[in-house]
């Protein structure tokens, strides 16, 4: 039997590849070939995926990890937090302790009025420019960039540079190793200068707070750790969230009753956001690979020490063992927030309170101010972004 290539092709832009459901029922730990040519084991059941994300017998990356992208270094997963001890174990726990206080739900909620003001300003501009409009370029990208730049203390005028650097760094098949090296060098030089400026002249922002952080037990963040942290915040803060805003709009407008339900009952905003996060199949192309530190079993299937596994979170989010009638969009689903879109365990996404807040604000603003919003080209006009680890959609054009 020929080993399948992963990621799988799909028949419809917003729908999952048929192989996810087939493997979940028949071969939940399946060997696949990655774009690099290396092999890994794909996990598609909720319990197995969660185990790989939370069990200490799995680690992130390492010299024996399968390469994901076609570049020589195998992609961003093999480079994240390089030169620091932030990736795993005590070093990662120390890093999270230092940052968690800055990303609590309570602290992020204090940003809601500012995020709302930014969203209203962008929708004002959208209305002035008139219908049709590119929702991706005019709202989905600039809002998270403005928010994360305000939070970190970076000038939002540099948003095009962040977008370029992050796309190159997140390459799967699109960019060369030389282009990746240049992006890292430019991004790190930019962040390093930003760190130095904030350390010398602190302001009222997260980066200033981080440069001053000192933990009595663990010590302050090193310069290299600060660079890796800010790079990750800028990258995730605009790339992932901006894509998710566009996906949310497309998913709700592709079946208009979903959007109308929020117009009729704004109390559904939070539940709708969770269902969008649970049901999205486009953003996480490969996910976050893990490497088995010892021989073990998942779902009754042997996984050898040193093997790379791909915990497929979007497939897990549709597992009927965890979610009743999982293909149905239900904003009142009681356990929707148990989805794994933000990961789980020690590596659970630190920025998820901010991402959720931004999605809620955008949904509330659009349904309140643009009740007649529609996809200009219908669902058939939507196109997947290809060749990057962070997927999502190409430009989402809307009318009203």
UniProtKB/TrEMBL annotation:
Record's keyword terms, sorted: Heme, Iron, Metal-binding, Monooxygenase, Oxidoreductase
InterPro entries: Cyt_P450 (IPR001128), Cyt_P450_B (IPR002397), Cyt_P450_CS (IPR017972), Cyt_P450_sf (IPR036396)
CC cofactor: heme
A single MF term (Gene Ontology): oxidoreductase activity, acting on paired donors, with incorporation or reduction of molecular oxygen
Domain of life: Bacteria
A Pfam family per the record: p450
SUPFAM superfamilies membership: Cytochrome P450 (SSF48264)
PROSITE patterns per record: CYTOCHROME_P450
Family (UniProt): Belongs to the cytochrome P450 family.
PANTHER family xref list: CYTOCHROME P450 BJ-1, P450, PUTATIVE (EUROFUNG)-RELATED
Name the record gives this protein: Cytochrome
Species of provenance: [Actinomadura] parvosata subsp. kistnae
């Amino acid at each position: 039997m020929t080993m399948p290539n992963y990621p799988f092709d799909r028949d419809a832009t917003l729908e999952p590849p048929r192989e996810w459901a087939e493997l979940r029922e028949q071969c939940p730990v399946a060997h696949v070939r990655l774009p690099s040519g290396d092999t890994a084991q794909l996990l598609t059941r909720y319990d197995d995926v969660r185990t790989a994300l939370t069990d200490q017998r799995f680690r992130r990356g390492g010299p024996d990890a399968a390469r994901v992208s076609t570049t020589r270094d195998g992609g961003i997963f093999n480079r994240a937090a390089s030169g620091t001890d932030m990736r795993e174990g005590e070093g990662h726990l120390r890093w999270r302790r230092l940052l968690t206080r800055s990303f609590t739900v309570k602290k992020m909620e204090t940003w809601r009025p500012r995020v709302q003001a930014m969203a209203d300003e962008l929708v004002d501009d959208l209305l002035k420019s008139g219908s049709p409009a590119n929702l991706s370029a005019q709202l989905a990208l600039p809002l998270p960039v403005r928010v994360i730049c305000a939070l970190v203390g970076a000038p939002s005028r540099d948003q095009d540079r962040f977008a370029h650097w992050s796309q190159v760094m997140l390459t799967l098949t699109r960019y060369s190793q030389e282009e990746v090296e240049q992006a890292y060098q430019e991004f790190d030089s930019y962040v390093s200068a930003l760190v130095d400026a904030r350390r010398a002249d602190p302001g009222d922002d997260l980066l200033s707070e981080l440069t001053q952080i000192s933990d009595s037990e663990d010590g302050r963040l090193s310069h290299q750790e600060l660079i890796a942290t800010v790079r990750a915040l800028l990258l995730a803060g605009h790339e992932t969230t901006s894509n998710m805003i566009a996906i949310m709009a497309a998913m709700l407008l592709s079946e208009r009753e979903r959007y109308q339900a929020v117009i009729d009952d704004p109390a559904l905003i939070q539940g709708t956001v969770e269902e969008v996060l649970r049901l999205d199949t486009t953003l996480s192309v490969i996910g976050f690979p893990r490497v088995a530190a010892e021989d073990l079993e998942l779902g009754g299937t042997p996984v050898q020490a040193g093997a790379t596994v791909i915990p497929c979170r979007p497939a897990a989010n549709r597992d009927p063992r965890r979610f009743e009638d999982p293909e149905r969009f239900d904003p009142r689903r009681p356990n929707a927030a148990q989805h794994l879109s933000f990961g789980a365990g020690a590596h659970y996404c630190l920025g998820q309170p901010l991402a959720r807040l931004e999605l809620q604000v955008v949904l509330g603003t659009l349904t309140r101010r643009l009740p007649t919003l529609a996809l200009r080209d219908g669902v058939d006009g939507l196109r997947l972004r290809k060749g990057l680890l962070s997927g999502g959609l190409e430009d989402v054009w809307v009318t009203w």
